[in-house]
Automatic annotation (TrEMBL):
Belongs to the DnaB/DnaD family. Residues 159-230, 250-310 form the DnaB/C C-terminal domain. It comes from Blautia argi. Pfam families: DnaB_2 (PF07261). Residues 117-147 are annotated as: Disordered. It comes from the Bacteria. This is DNA replication protein DnaD. Residues 121-138 have a biased composition (Polar residues). Gene3D superfamilies: DnaD domain-like.
Amino acid sequence: MGQFEIYPPFPGAYTFISNTFLDYYMPSANGEFVKIYLYLLRHASCGKHTLNFASVADALNCTETDVQRALRYWEKAGVLKLSLNSLGTLTGVSFAPLLPGADSSLECAVSAVSSADAKEPQQQPVQKTELSLSSAQPALTPDKKQDLKNRDEVRQILFIAEQYLGKTLSATDMETLLYLYDEVHLNADLMEYLLEYCVSKGSSSMAYIKKVGLAWAEQGITTVTQAKEETNLYNRNYFTILRAFGIKNRNPLDKEIQYMNLWLNQYGFTLEIISEACSRTVLATGKASFSYADSILESWFKQGVHHLSDIDSLDLNFHQKKAAKVKEATPKQKAPASKNRFNNFHQRNYNNMAELETQLLGK
């Protein structure tokens, strides 16, 4: 899915929250869904605003799956209205008027989101941990926590976490790591790589670490090798795009990664199409401008480009229209003067009046 627009329910620089939402809709909703709704509402208060799943997920330390689930939930609850194009791609989100007494619609929303999750296809016949990424983390009993902390493997995980994060773990941090180990069933080696990977991405937030761990569990990732294959695939794509820009010998910046995730995941473009946009960017600007390349790719996305041949067709159509405009703008040549009885003879040319006066006086 690509970018979608948020339509404001009111103007102004403040974010207004309906009392009806607070009284009737918020109490029974999942905390992640509420957070995503408030984030959308805040951006809508600034006027019509364009967002995408990746930007929302990055801002809230959640996954794109969380964002999609939240939108489905609030649509079924009658809080949001989603606009889709002919291909089923989300193009707009608007806020519906809220009515008190929303119990039935909220029940429908919960069942709709649950059924939608149940229908999601399994990509591999790998046994997966059945989790909801947005579900609340169950609290561990004191006896359970103590039992886990007595294990050598767990003590090693907690020690490694403190080394990677550069701080003493809080009680909440420990509970999160124990939850990933005991409930989500991430083994010790995978937990260590999870910490290493998240810190290498520039995020030491325990919420982000938890989200990545849950996402790996949902994808059936149970070994470090599988996790590295998943992360290295994106890394290879990143460096391929950087080379297309002429960038070498450095890692991508966070903002560049956001752009590349948008092109790869939301627009769904192949590396060949992205590389073509990068080449055109460098030729047009003389530098590696990710924003300029994004304007090209966004235009291609809106015009339904899926293959390099589609770009050739767009180029041909552009040049044909340009040639037609040039032809229309070219001034027409004046037709030669027609010969008639007034100008069908040799015309005299008098260069100066003195010569003409001499000729007249000599007669």
